[in-house]
Structure formats: C-alpha cells, structure tokens
Amino acid sequence: MLTLGLTAVALALFFGWVRDLPPPSTHMQLPWWILAVLFFLAEVYVAHLHFKGDAHSFTLSEIPLVLGLCLVSPGYLVLARLTGALAALTLHDRQRPIKLAFNIAYFGLETCVLILIFRALAPGQETTSLVGWLATFSATTVTTVLGCLMIFAVISLSQNEPAFEMLPLEIGFGTLVTFGNTCLALLALTILRFEPLATWLLVVPAAIFFFGYRAYTSELQKRDTLEFLYETTRILHRSPEVESAMLGLLKQAQVMFKAERAEVVLFPSKDSGPALRTALGPGHATAVMEPLDDAVCRELRSHTPPDGRATLLTHANTEFLGRYWATEPKNAIIAPLQGETRKLGAILIGNRLGDIRTFDPDDVALFEALASHASITLENGRLEQSLAHLSELQAELEYQATHDALTGLANRSLFSARVTHALARNERRGGTIAVLLLDLDNFKTINDSFGHAWGDKLLAAVGRRLEDSMRPADTVARQGGDEFAILLEDIQGMAEATSIAERTVNALEASFVIEGNEFLIRTSLGIALSPGEGSSTEELLRNADMAMYAAKKSLRGHYEIFAPGLNEEALKRAQMQGDFQRAVQEGELMLAFQPIVDLETNRVAGVESLVRWDSPERGLLLPESFISVIEETGLILSLSRWVLKTACRQAAQWQRSYPGAVPLGVSVNLSAPELQKADLVDEVAAVIKETGVAPDSLTFEITETVLMREVGPTVRKLHELKSLGVQLAIDDFGTGYSSLSYLENFPVSSLKIAKQFLEGLGRGRNAALVHAIIRIAEALELSAVAEGIETAEQLKEMRRMRCNYGQGYLFAKPLPGNELEGMLGGHLPGVIDLRTRRAARGQLAPGRAAP
Fold it and tell me: What is the pTM of this model?
C-alpha cells in the first residue's frame, strides 16, 4: 500500500507539473543516457559506514541529480534516474519485486520533488548562481529527509514496530553525506561552466576520498572481526552449559553477519540418539536442542564440506535448505564443526539483512574461523557429557509426557496413539482389537471420606492390579481421575473381550488393603470392538465411553457392550441438552410451589420451590426427566441460580402482600455442584439483598448424599450460609449415608422424611422408622417435615407421631405462583379447612407420585 501510494504521488507530480517544465536556461547540455550510467554506478558502488553495530549505507546519487538539474530537461532527468536505478537494482542487486517496486517509486518521487523545489526557489536561475546554490542545497536536503522517512516507514511496517531511536541518526548521516555530494556536484558544474577541461581534475580527489574510505572501513572491519572472535571464544569457554554456549554463539553470529537466522546442528556420536538443533530466527523464533529428523540430518551431513572449510551457498545450491527451513534462503554460509576424530556438527547462517545484501568471501573466511573456534571448545569433553545428560533428560521428559505420574501407566495421549497404531496395523493385516473403559463407582466417597492422599494410594493400587491382570502386549492407561482404559490387541472376538472384562471386574472386587486400611470398590466397564464398533480412535473411545455409561446406569459392578442403541440414546441426551439451552433463553422454564403445612395449626408455613420445563416438543417435564442430563453440561449451576432468584423474588412479593403475618417461608433445593462453588455464600447474600426476602424465611434443602461429599468443606460452607440467617434442611432423610455423628455437626434446622417411608406406614417397620426419625429431630431440637402426604390416614398418623410439618397432594399439588397466591390470599394468616376442601382434594389424583 505504501508503494502504491508513492507511485501515485510520483505520477501525479510528473504528469501534473514536471513534464511541462521548460529545459534549464543554460548553454550546456548532457545526453540523458550518460546521466543514466552515472545513476547506475552510484547505485552499484554503495558506501557502508559501520557505526555501533549498524551499517549506514549511502550513495553518490546526489551528484548526477544536481548535474541533471542544470544539464538536462526535467523529463529526461526523471527518465535517467529511473533507468539507471532499475538496471542496478535488477542486474546487480537482484532485489525482490516488492522491494524493487518501492525503490523505483521512491526514486521517481524523490526526483520530481527535487526538481519542483529547485524550480520554485530559483526560477530561471542557474545552479552556479548564489540563489541556485541555496535552492540546490534546499532541494537535496529535503529529498534526503524524505528518503529517511520513507525508509523508516518501510522498516517499521516490516518489523511491526517503529524504530524511532534510529530515525535521528539516519537523518544526520544522510544530511551530512548529501551536503558533501551536493558540494562536489556544484563544484563540478562551476568548473564545467568556466573551464570544462578542468572537470577531469575532480576525479582525483573523488577517487582518493572513495578508496580512502574503503581502506578505513576495511580496518574497522578487521577490528570488529577480532572483537567478534574474542567475544565468541569467551562465551564458549564461560557458558556453564552447552545449550547457553550455543545460544550465545548464534546471537553473536546473527549480529556480526547481519543474518536473518543462525543455527547449530550437533550430530550424534554413533547411536547415542538424534541430531540436536539450536537456532535463532527468523524474527524472535528460538529453538534449543530440538531433536532433528534423521533424513534432514543425513542431508546436512552430505552438504557440509568434509575438509573443515566454510562454503557460500547461493540460489543455485540452497534447495536442500529450502526443504529444511520451509523457505529457500537467498544466500547462506555453512561450515562444519570438525573434531579430531569425527564431525561434531554444522553451523549455518542465512539471508543477509540490510543494504549489504549478500555474503562475500571475507564473510566466508570469518565464518570459517568462527566454526574452528567453536569446534575446539566443543571437543574439550564438554559436548559428549552435555549431550549424554541432555539425552537422559529428554528421555525422562518424553516418559513424563506419555505416562501418568501417579500410577506410572500410559496417559491419555499415549493410549490414543497406541489405539491409532493398532487400528492402522489391523487395517493392513486384519484382526480384532477391543477398548475397555472403566471407572470406580464409589471412589469419590472414599476419596472424600479418607482424603486425597489415601485416594491417590488407592488409584495407584488399582493401576498395579490392572496391569498385573493383563497380557504383556495389552496397554493399561489412566485416562484421568478414577477412569482407566485398556487396549486389547489381537483378540479372537467379543467372547475373549468379555472374558477379560469379567476377569477385570472380579480382580477389582477383591478388597484393597493399604497400610492396614481395607477398601472395597465397585467398577463400571464399557467395551467397544474394532472392526465393527469404531473405525477411528475417537469413535472407538466414544463408543466404549457410552457403553461404560450404560453399565453405570444398569448395574454397578458390571460391564456393558456397545450397541447402536447406546449411540441413539447419547444423541437423544445431546439433543435434550441443546433443547434445554434454548429453553433457558426462550423462557420455557417455570417455577411451581407446593405448600408446607403446620400439622398442629393447619396454617401454611411455607412452600417448596419445584422447577418445571414447559417444552413445546415434549410437554410439561418434571425435574427427574432432565436434571441428570443438564448436570453433565454444567447448566445445573445457571438453573439453580435462576430458581433461587425467582423463588426469593416470589417469596418477597408474598411477604409484602401479607405484612401482618409471620413471613412465609420458601424452600429451595441445593445441588452438589452448587454447594461446591467458592462464591456460593456471596451469591446467596446478593440475591437476598436484591430481592428483599427475609433471610430467615429462606430454607436450603440438601440431600444426605450431597452432605457426605468433602465433609469438612461442606460443614464450613453450611455454617457460612447459616450466618446469613437462612435455614438448612436435610431432604429425604434416612435414604442416604445417614450418620448421627455427622448430623450433629451440620447446622441444620429440619429433617424431611422421605415419601417412600410414608407410603409403607402400614407395612413392616416403616412406621417405626418414621417414628424414630421424628424422635431424632426432637432430640436434636429440629423440625420434622413429612413429604408425600396423600391420604387422611397418613395425615392422622403423622399428627399422632407429633410430626411438625407436612406436604403432599392431600393439601395441594405444586402450583404456579399466581394460582397459589389466590389460595394463600384466602387463608393467610388463616387455617386450611381440610373438611371443606375434601372434594377438591379428590381431583388431585392422590395415587400419583409426589413431585
């Protein structure tokens, strides 16, 4: 874009003004092609001034420019400049097309600006007059500054960052050189005007100046060479490790040779491992002791000179580097690192940067000396020791990258790679493989109860037992957590796979005794075979995972074989997950409330919040039909947050509607993922503040199973919730892992008796169990709430046992807030008259399971 802009401006200036300007008013004329030759020579013989590690290049192009102002017409001056520069940049410098286009556009713009400034400041004046001198100096100075700005813009664009610190220095050098060149040109014009034959005398001082400068820069180069060799030798001797020595060496080489990339490849000794590559560039790219492909190593060996000499590579012989570096370099130097008994490696640099565009014979000689110094240092015993240590370290890192640190088994990535390899081998020669995925059903309970240290010991023991029960050719891996995988190769079919699966399940059913503690675990295992149940690694693992999930659902401690129906079930679950996400966005969720009644006074003491999904495709869905699905996706957290906020907002509205009554309580279920959230307490406090609900009217219902997970953190979290003023209830008490010692530590206020106990009041010991739960609540000064009261007999029995509260279809089914509000409006703070509402209760289908 910059080049196109320069071209457009240059063309506009030329065709708008320069082309129509009259020739200079002088009796002297010079053929334009001679000027073109002078411009060609100026671009070919470029002078380079080295200063603080940078090369500042300048030409004598101002001399033919100033001569052209006086000796040729403006149009021919532009033609001569472009012709000479184009010939030099293509034939001599072989510039890339984009760089060539930029330079030609800039030269055209510079020449047009120079002519216009000179003609504006000295109309009708010759360059040999005082006004002409001032106009000439002004024109050349402005164009020099313009050129520095253009080059600054190009460098900033190509490096993606502006190099402001270099701009003043470039302008200073450029202005100084321009002033000298302009003086020489004006002196030449003055001599031409008054004594043309004396012009040849200028050749002598110009030649002395040029060759004197070349001699000066040669001495500077020699000094820089000695400093470079001294510094690289110091780095090689003082660096503690071979890696840091190589990086320091390459950094010095990049700076000294102005190379885009520098690289050292260390060849292996005998069969000690792969070749190792350390490289800098292009840009900020860095590689340290990376293993190199054997084919590339052989090719580098073949192109490394056998006699220890460095070799300059040009376009004709850099093809192999193009394959190695992905892009073929314009030029490069390669030299061997030669030891006394073998070739240690090779060192390379490629792509000369800056205006000095190619490496020359002096660079090759210096690079050869560098390689010789590096070879001597590496030969002094440090290389072999460092490479041996590095090989051991790389082997250890490779093992760690492919094995599980806890069990020593293969990890997920290595297992996938071996499945892929087995599938490819079977595709070539036939055969059957099987993938078994298994996890430990009750591991989390053990881990939470005994702690992570004991859980890790149990996982390690499981890994050892699995490995001992498999054939040597089979692969056992830990996929993560409590999930393991087994690859069976070259089996006879499903019969052998199921036999091994049964043996595996039986092996894990035997108790684990770890440091005197005995552990019993249960296992769910899924099997998938190939060919037939998966033609790719991903498909085979996915099918085995679906079979394992089916085993968990059907019968714990068992195995399942993948069948297409499992895939269909998984697709249905995935579809339901997607539909649920849409349901959240489109407001298909609703909250229903079921009254909780004080059994002594018949007053409504509170309500339990129950979520419903009103799906256009599936109808009204109860939680048990979709909760397990959304728990797999993590959407349960956003659902719980919505239920909490909606329930509190509704309760606060009821409390404002009945200000004279005791605040109506609202219960909300608290799931395990929600209880594990670090910011749960802050979130609840924010909802209470936002909705204005009375804190002591909010009750969280938690199942025993959730309470028993990570008991210590759970107790702390419950105490923090209690400090907000909210109430806590244990839901479905008696159906989980009940423990009175734990119950005493939980800051709960009520126990909810599971519906299944009320259903069997007339059978077996259920009545005794319900009575015992109520007495436990009394002893701990807790409230007892009976769930699922559907008959008058159940209500009578609960009153006889002095149960505090009850809920169920006998009182009301779960209703939307607006319907329930009408009922509450007629009875708060009144009494529910069960006798007058018996007919209505008969319509509530008392035989249905309570939601």
Answer: 0.43
Cα–Cα dist 608/626, whole Å: 19
Q: Residue 765's domain spans which residues? A: 587-839
Q: What is the largest CA-CA distance in the chain?
A: 137
Return d(Cα 294, Cα 268) in angstroms, integer.
Answer: 10
- How far is residue 337's CA from residue 370's CA, in Å, rounded to a whole number? 10
- What are 90-147's pLDDT values in tens digits? 888 777 788 889 999 999 999 999 999 999 998 876 667 888 889 999 999 999 999 8
Residue 582 included in any domain: no
Q: How far apart are CA 272 and CA 387, in angstroms?
A: 9
Alpha carbon distance 628, 639 (integer Å): 13
Q: Are 531 and 471 in contact (CB under 8 A)?
A: no
Strand order in the sheet with 332-338: 286-292, 275-280, 259-266, 343-352, 332-338, 311-313
Between 293 and 658, the more confident residue is: 293
Residue 153 has pLDDT above 90, yes or no: no
Q: What does DSSP assign to residue 850?
A: P
Nearest 10 degrees: CA dihedral of 705, 707, 708, 713? Answer: 150
- Residues 741 and 746: their CA atoms lie apart, in Å, by 9
Q: What's CA 255's distance to the chain center, in Å? A: 33
The token pair that represents 815 in the structure block? 């209703």
> Do both 433 and 487 map to the same domain?
yes
Predicted confidence at residue 52, as pLDDT, reads 43
- DSSP-H helix ranges across 309-406: 319-325, 361-379, 382-402
DSSP E strands, 216-356:
259-266, 275-280, 286-292, 311-313, 332-338, 343-352
Alpha carbon dihedral 37, 43, 49, 55, in 10-degree steps, equals -170
The enclosing H or E element of 612 equals strand 604-615
Q: Roughly what angle, to the nearest 10 degrees, separates helices 62-71 and 74-87?
A: 150
Q: Assess whether 26 and 158 both reside in one domain.
A: yes
Beta strands in 734-837, from DSSP E residues, in sequence order: 750-753, 783-787, 805-807, 815-816
Residue 74 lies inside a defined structural domain of this protein? yes
Long-range contacts: 363-366, Cβ < 8 Å, 24+? 363/257, 363/312, 363/333, 364/310, 364/311, 364/312, 364/333, 365/310, 366/225, 366/228, 366/229, 366/256, 366/257
Q: Which residues of 810-826 are buried (b: 16+ CB within 10 A; e: fewer)?
A: bbbbbbebeebbebbee
Number of domains in the chain: 4
> Bridge-partner residues for 477, per DSSP?
410, 485
**Which tokens sit at 453?**
């240290």
- How many Å apart are CA 683 and CA 578, to the nearest integer? 26
Separation CA 39–CA 107 (nearest Å): 11
Domain stop point among 562, 578, 608:
562
**Backbone phi, then psi, for 573, in 5-degree steps?**
-65, -40
Residue type, 469: S
Peptide bond into 24 cis (omega under 30): no
Alpha carbons 21 and 116: distance in angstroms, whole number: 9
